[in-house]
Write a structure and sequence with these properties.
The complex is a heterodimer of chains A (about 280) and B (about 375).
Chain A: H1 8-31, H2 37-41, H3 44-77, H4 83-90, H5 92-95, H6 98-109, H7 116-121, H8 130-156, H9 159-166, H10 171-200, H11 203-209, H12 219-229, H13 231-257, H14 272-275
Helix pairs in contact in A: 1-13, 3-8, 3-10, 3-12, 6-8, 6-11, 8-10, 8-11, 9-10, 10-13, 12-13
Chain B: E1 3-9, E2 14-20, E3 25-29, H1 36-44, E4 51-56, E5 59-64, E6 72-73, E7 81-84, H2 96-106, H3 116-126, H4 142-155, E8 160-164, H5 175-186, E9 191-195, H6 198-204, E10 207-212, E11 215-221, H7 222-227, H8 232-238, E12 241-250, E13 255-261, E14 277-282, E15 291-296, E16 302-304, H9 308-311, E17 328-341, E18 344-349, E19 353-356, H10 358-364, E20 371-377, E21 381-385
Parallel strand pairs in B: 3-9, 3-10, 7-8, 8-9, 14-21
Antiparallel strand pairs in B: 1-2, 1-4, 4-5, 5-6, 10-11, 12-13, 12-15, 13-14, 15-21, 16-20, 17-18, 17-20, 18-19
Classes of the chains: A mainly alpha (about 280), B alpha+beta (about 375).
Chain lengths: ~280, ~375
């Protein structure tokens, strides 16, 4: 029996807090028009939005991994002048209002933006395209991956990497065979969180990519539009997003649990191998 | 010479030069903070020296001229130097077999014809751990894991093997088995073992260097160095009493020597301090006036609670610490503490320690601060230059 020292009033406040999160979800579920649920979420515009959301979010997640893994490694494993400032800047999209992020993207990749003219010269127009949706989602989701991966890299430390190097493994081999496998759970949960953030992206997408059905109108935009004309459809689509979110949280949680460093303590007591260093049958328990 | 090493790290007060011959195992002893770990990190390539040069079998490990930011420092994976640490540090996501196969698989350019797994099995066999091949590190005990780590370090076929207190994190019950394994696999291998344990030095090393404060303070063949300590740390390590002083008189051609003890060293003798002389055996002639040390095994000291002179009928005054009977020296002392060590009781006084049997200790009925007389035969005291 372990001692619990929590005062009763604190538990009451905690219950209020939990209710504050759970009740609105319940309220929404109660408002769902179950009779027309399937037709509502399978209308052409809904399916377009859902398909676009999944495709762009997956692309954004892939982009987050490609860009975020090297960023996390550089932040965690090197020291250079201005590193702290750079880390703060990289994490900025986390706290920035998404609309502001969208404006920033527009001023950079838009037709009259910083790099827009360069892209224009090659006949590429980023703004108000599906690519713009992916860029907006990557912009807001990248910090999630970098943050969780950098933390994991610091926790794992460099001792295993040093051992690998003294065994003759080049830095690339160490990265591929030691570092990445060790932080794989964090990479997975970071990727899942990035995917979730990309899926829910609204402000930056609307500002930078607009709202064209089938091209840039993702599920959150569709829900916002439907709310004006068909509230039942908006609620039904919202429920779809809630289900996806729950699945994502569950997967991310699982991935975090499966860390090889956290998986169990020593099963075999030390005394055993003084007498018996010959094959010991693996325990079934 | 297989390894020639010289490096300075002024910010750590580290300045060491040493050589290790082909196939030789060198033990590095020293108190905490002596710079032993710095030495290993410099050799493994995990630390960049401020200045120095190291050469292993003709490969330059590093060559950094003084006050220069340039110079060559070979990265760890190109050195052929394996490091076995206190903790096994097996890669947690790989099985024991895959851990051992890691080195052979990662080797670039080398002999690719040999299958890494076959090699790994051979090395697991070598450390008596073939039955553990399929296990994950978290399914291994500390001793088993360290055994696999030895196999992993050797499987990468290092030209130099570094061992950083490989037995320190293990239970006392497990250490002897690993020590036997190491003794077998280190034979004929160029290796440096850092240790606190005198037994490791005796059983595993051909030669010993003693480090203190970032420098080498003593070096030589294991037995010579350990039998002739010159510093208190060193003497404690070797389990010997150390008295330091100056040669007062010596018989021509060696054999016997009188050493006048230093009082500055805190050896506060219960007798008229200055001029306390200890007669000891000497293997080589010692010149009068030169600094000398006298080493005596605690087991060679007998303790009495009454001055030995009263036991005999001679009229010699015991307080002068000269021989009360031919060939013996008596020093007066006070009990500091008593400690049970295995089957002996270690009695510590302000300058000498004595090992008594429990029966002797009980018969003496000693208390802290009590006056005792320590006696040892001149033949059991060894004098040598320091």
């Amino acid at each position: 029996m372990s001692y619990r020292s929590l005062p009763r009033w604190l538990i009451v406040v905690a219950i209020v807090g939990a209710a504050f999160v759970v009740l609105p979800l319940a309220g929404m579920v109660l408002r769902v028009d179950w009779a027309n649920f399937l037709p509502l979420i399978t209308s052409e515009s809904s399916l377009d939005a859902l398909g676009l959301s999944l495709r762009t979010s997956l692309a954004a997640t892939a982009l987050c991994i490609v860009l975020g893994v090297p960023m996390a490694l550089v932040l965690a494993r090197t020291r250079f002048w201005g590193q702290k400032v750079l880390r703060s800047l990289v994490l900025l999209p986390l706290v920035l209002p998404p609309v502001v992020g969208g404006l920033a993207l527009l001023s950079t990749f838009g037709r009259r933006g910083l790099l827009g003219q360069t892209f224009d010269a090659f006949g590429i127009q980023l703004a108000f395209s599906t690519t713009a949706v992916v860029l907006a989602q990557t912009f807001v989701a990248l910090p999630f991956l970098v943050l969780s991966l950098e933390g994991a890299l610091r926790t794992v430390g460099t001792r295993y990497e040093a051992v690998g190097a003294t065994l003759g493994a080049s830095p690339s081999t160490v990265l591929r065979r030691i570092t990445l496998p060790l932080v794989l759970p964090a990479l997975l949960s970071g990727a899942v969180l990035s995917f979730a953030r990309a899926l829910g992206e609204f402000g930056a997408t609307l500002t930078f990519a607009g709202s064209l059905q089938g091209t840039t109108r993702t599920l959150p935009l569709e829900i916002y539009l439907q709310r004006e004309t068909d509230p039942d459809a908006a609620v039904a689509l919202s429920l779809v997003l809630v289900v996806v979110a729950i699945v994502v949280v569950a997967v991310a949680h699982q991935a975090g649990e499966a860390s090889p460093l956290r998986r169990g303590r020593r099963l075999v007591p030390d005394a055993q191998d003084s007498a018996d260093i010959r094959p010991v049958e693996r325990r079934q328990s | 010479m297989s390894l020639q090493f010289r490096a300075r790290m002024p910010d750590r007060g580290f300045d060491v030069a040493l050589d290790v011959a082909e196939g030789e195992t060198l033990a590095v002893l020293g108190p905490n903070g002596a710079g032993k770990s710095t030495l290993l990190a410099l050799l493994a390539g995990l630390l960049r020296p401020a200045e120095g040069r190291a050469d292993l079998d003709g490969t330059v490990l590093f060559d950094v001229p003084p006050a220069s930011r340039r110079g060559t420092v070979l990265p760890p994976h190109r050195r052929g130097v394996s490091l076995l640490a206190q903790e096994a540090l097996l890669f947690p996501h790989l099985t024991a077999l895959e851990n051992v196969a890691f080195g052979p698989r990662s080797r670039r350019g080398g002999d690719r014809s040999a299958d890494p797994h076959t090699l790994a099995r051979t090395w697991l066999d070598e450390v008596d751990a073939s039955g553990l091949a399929g296990r994950r590190p978290h399914e291994l005990s500390g001793g088993q894991a360290q055994r696999i780590a030895v196999a992993r370090a050797l499987a990468s076929e290092p030209r130099l093997l570094l061992l950083d207190e490989p037995m320190a994190a293990l239970d006392a019950a497990v250490a002897p088995a690993l020590r036997r394994t190491l003794r077998r696999v280190l034979a004929g291998r160029t290796a440096i073992i850092v240790t606190h344990d005198i037994l490791d030095a005796f059983t595993l090393a051909d030669r010993v260097v003693v480090m203190d404060g970032g420098r080498i303070v003593d070096s030589g063949p294991t037995r010579t160095v350990l039998d002739r300590p010159t510093s208190p740390f060193h003497a404690g390590l070797a389990g010997l009493n150390l008295l330091v002083g100056t040669v007062a008189a010596s018989t021509p051609g060696g054999g016997e020597v009188d050493v006048e003890l230093d009082v500055e060293l805190g050896v506060e003798l219960g007798v008229e301090a200055a001029g306390t002389r200890v007669r000891a055996r000497a293997d080589a002639p010692l010149e009068p006036g030169r600094p000398a040390a006298v080493a005596i095994r605690p087991s060679h000291i007998t303790v009495t609670v009454t001055p030995p002179a009263t036991d005999t009928t001679t009229t010699t005054t015991a307080a002068t610490a000269t021989a009360t009977e031919p060939g013996h020296t008596v020093l007066e002392a006070h009990v500091l503490d008593l400690e049970q060590r295995g089957d002996v009781v270690r009695l510590r006084t302000e300058h000498l320690a004595a090992d008594l049997t429990p029966g002797e200790a009980a018969a003496l009925d000693l208390t802290e601060g009590q006056r005792v007389w320590c006696r040892f035969a001149q033949a059991d005291a060894l004098a040598y230059p320091r």
